[in-house]
Amino acid sequence: MDCAETRQEVPLEIYTYICTLLFDSASEREALATLLSLLSTSRYIRTAASEPAIWKPYYDARYKNCVREREAQRREQFGGDYRLLYFARRELDRRGLRLLDDIRIQVRDRGVRAQELVKEFSFDVWDALGDEMRLPVPPYFREPGEEEEAPAVPHALSRKYWAEVAQGVIARSWAVKMWKAALQGDESVSFEDVMAGFSAFFGWSPMEISMRLDTECEICRRALKANGVLLDPEHPEFSVYDVCTAIICYMKEERWVKPADYNPGSEHYFLQFFPHGILVAGSRDAPFGVLANTWLFVSLCSRLGLDTYPSHIPPNELVCCVRSTPAGNPIVVAFRPLGEPRVLQGSDSEPHGEGSLSSAESTSYPPRPESSASAMTRS
Predict the structure, then answer these.
(1) 203: left (phi > 0), else alpha (psi -120 to 50), else beta?
(2) Which of 234, 233, 241, 242 is nearest to 346 (CA)?
(3) In which band, very low, low, confident or very high, does the pLDDT at 353 lie, cut at 50, 70 and 90?
(4) ∠ CA(257), CA(258), CA(264), 5° rounding?
(5) d(Cα 212, Cα 186) in Å, to the nearest integer?
């Protein structure tokens, strides 16, 4: 009995199951190398290793960023086959890094090549550029804490530098185009996107900020549930006011709202105006400013399933409007540079707000802006 016949006596699904265990049994790099080697063996084992579900964790682990429209087209093209998606993205990585090498080596027409990188690849090669920025440099250039035994990669310093430059160009280009669309009234541009545009000028991807917000929201959700806060709008005792005040308390605990022991001399003070402050280690020593806290509050409430939007009240105060349904009247929350955040007004079903609007405003509620740019430009 030959080897091929013996292997085929083992059901295909057993081989497939073994392949699914690779991702958790070794480092991602080692697991991927093993999986790729299996594709070069017999047709029987290659069939098992080609199962799309096996490739999903590898795809999700490597590719956190993308051009959303192009990613949707790829998923439609490959029908959700993560193996084909993975190899399609790796081909994009290869082409994008080759173009980056041309930018690094050839001084002439660097600007033209940078435009090509943004236009043709953009955030589709963001993760590959991130890998370039983590290349091991010669030992005498390494920062304290960097892996000492990793062999240096040729031209690592210049490759890291140009990869960071390329990420900055991609991020800033996205921010400018997005802001232009927002100013033209594009309703697909969210308040979260508009704020993330500021962090793009510091080299942050909007997808990185969005993923961190997702994580923060889950932590906030667990904290609220542990404190007995009802989050189901269908529950008869659900209260938008209670959710809002609980989120404000959570933000205080996380030091996003000005803590009592705040030191204005903190080196992270400057970050209080920008969304990527939540991504930077040590930045919680400095609270967020009014605009950033409004952005964070709106983002958390939206992820908790509440209809939330930024607006203004006279004379020109930025506020957050929160309601359980688009048809209801909102709770109005205002963050201030100094002092406690205020819950200015409750909806008809939430009459216990801590404050009130002026008498001229008592019968009307802050309207939803026509676009995200409306809230931002007035701020």
Answers:
(1) left
(2) 241
(3) very low
(4) 140
(5) 25
pTM for the model: 0.83
Angle at the Cα of 64 (from 272 to 208), degrees rounded to 5?
5
* C-beta neighbour count of 190 within 10 angstroms: 19
Helix, strand, coil tally for the chain in percent (to 5): 60, 5, 35
CA 207-72-185 angle, to 5 degrees, is 65
The pairing of beta strand 331-334 with beta strand 317-323 = antiparallel
**Interacting residues of 283 by C-beta distance below 8 A, sequence separation 6+:** 268, 271, 277
Crossing angle of helices 68-78 and 82-105, in 10° steps, is 140
Which tokens go with 245? Answer: 């005040």
Alpha-helical regions (H) of 191-350:
191-200, 206-226, 240-253, 290-303
DSSP run (H or E) holding 60: helix 52-62
Mutual angle of helices 191-200 and 290-303, in 10-degree steps: 130
| Residue 368, CA atoms < 13 Å, CB-side half-sphere | 15
pLDDT band at residue 284 under the 50/70/90 scheme: low
Tell me whether the omega of the peptide bond preceding residue 341 falls within 30 degrees of 0, making it cis.
no
Structure token digits, residue 278? 């939540």
Kindly state the DSSP code that residue 124 receives in the 8-state scheme. Answer: G
Instruction: Give the whole-angstrom CA distance, residue 285 versus residue 270.
Output: 11
Exposure on the CB side of residue 268, measured as CA atoms within 13 A: 20
**24 CB burial (10 A radius; 0-12, 13-18, 19+):** exposed
Give me 110's structure tokens. Answer: 């660097």
- Which pLDDT band, with edges at 50, 70 and 90, does 370 fall under? low
Q: Mean pLDDT in the chain?
A: 83
